[in-house]
Amino acid sequence: MSSVRGAIRQGAYILAEAGVDSPTPDAKELMESIVGEIFTAPATLSPAQEREFFTLVGKRASRIPLQYLTGKMYFRRRTLKAAEGVFIVRPETEMVAESAIAAAREVARPLGYREGAVRVVDLCAGSGAIAGAVADEIPGAKVWAVEMDPKAYALAKENLQGLQVELVCADATSAETMRNLDGSIDVVVSNPPYVPEGDVAQAEALCDPPSALYGGGSNGLEIPCQIIDRAARLLRDGGVLVMEHAPSQGADLCAHARKMGYVQPCIMKDLTGRDRYLFARRPKMGDMNVYPASEAAQPLQEAAQKGELVVIPTDTVYGIGADPRNAQAVSKLLAAKGRTGQMPPPVLVSALEDWKLVAASMSPKMMALARAFWPGALTLILPAGKNLGWDTEAKGGTVAVRVPGLAQTRELLKLTGPLAVTSANLHGDDPAQNVSDAQGYFGEEVAIYVDEGPTPGPVPSTIVSQRGEEMVILRQGVIPEEELARVWESA
């Protein structure tokens, strides 16, 4: 007869030789499935126990999932039943559940966690792991779980016993499923099938049912996109969607969520630093259109072309802008800022050669400064072009032009063309260094807000004009006067 500890060591060796990632913990868990808690079990195995143990070790070495062999899996603070033919919940999904639980708590806490204070739906519930965690951790939560696979539904029914979860056997992507709940749900959470074709690398994952793995299409996006669509109908105004996905799918799912009208969809990472889940919110009264710079190109271009106001990041602070060649757009900009007619806005262009789009000419000396300090914190006062949307003669016949130092801003300007941009704040208030500040100042007056995170701060650009052959520094900024003079004199 083998000792318990000796059998575990031998089993771990066999598993290690087979390439199992966690041989010793797996061997211990297999042993405990036979003898119970190791520390309280007899020191030796009976012949029958020994045969059973090494039979399980052999199956595990052939990469049958540990959970299928023990009939158990663990998720957050609960022990769940596992069964062959039902998707095995992964550790990374605990972060998805945590995010959904946190969003649900935000709703339930102000209401004292009273019965039904928060309503949560788990789409593609599988074994019921996420739905069970929500019901277990949020007192009074009303939870629905939707699963169409018969085996998974039966297992979820066992795992959800004793919890306030209504389990529904239906297609989670169908508009008919729980139609009566449309517009009433606070949080939708989902770990849908999402794996792209041919992407399963882990041998154990091949034991999961294909219907729980593959998301449809070569990129695996069909079912996740359908979940986004269904959640959009289920959620109330301001409701939240949390959905797991493959690391390669974040950008596409963000774009689809935005297309479906979600506000500020973002991709959250798991503990390994990989893109893991989508977090998106349905719009509510007062929401503004906020786009990360990576997704802002088309809506920003459309808004600028329509003469709308936009907010963009610059290399100093956030700026509010409009098409400088559109008189109505410029009027909107000046009205939003409360600027007088004596204060025309400066114009940002994407590259040095684009000065021609808004200015009539540039002297050789001013060109030398532009070549030396653009892109960057240098604003040049140039003779105004005739196509600007304000009375240039009444404003001294000049226009302030700059190529911003921030690469993302220049990329956006390539699409919009020149933008008349001034700091995104009201007169006398601090300049906006993030999108939230800008929203507080302008609200729905602005069509598009581009979010690139916090800006460095209100470090002013240097403003230079020319009088005859003389350089005139109208405002001292970050560029030293000596450097400007050196370039000017050498031109």
Describe this structure in words.
With 491 residues, the protein is an alpha/beta fold. It folds into three domains: 59 residues, no CATH class; 205 residues, Vaccinia Virus protein VP39 (Rossmann fold), CATH 3.40.50.150; 201 residues, DHBP synthase (Alpha-Beta Complex). The protein is 34% helix and 20% strand. It contains 16 helices and 19 strands. It has a ten-stranded mixed beta sheet with strand order 10-17-11-12-16-13-15-14-18-19, sandwiched between helices. The protein has a seven-stranded mixed beta sheet with strand order 5-4-3-6-7-9-8, sandwiched between helices. Helix 2 runs antiparallel to helix 3, helix 5 packs parallel to helix 6 and helix 13 packs across helix 16. The N and C termini lie far apart (95 Å). The mean pLDDT is 89. Pfam families: MTS, PrmC_N, Sua5_yciO_yrdC. Its EC number is 2.1.1.297. One of its GO terms (biological process) is methylation.
What secondary-structure arrangement, pairings included, does this model have?
Blueprint: H1 4-17, H2 23-35, H3 47-61, H4 66-70, E1 72-75, E2 78-81, H5 93-108, E3 119-123, H6 129-137, E4 142-146, H7 150-159, E5 165-168, E6 185-190, H8 210-213, H9 222-234, E7 235-244, H10 250-259, E8 263-269, E9 275-281, E10 290-292, H11 297-305, E11 310-313, E12 318-322, H12 327-337, E13 347-348, H13 364-373, E14 378-383, E15 398-402, H14 407-416, E16 419-423, H15 435-442, E17 448-451, E18 462-467, E19 470-475, H16 481-490
Helix pairs in contact: 1-2, 1-3, 2-3, 5-6, 13-16
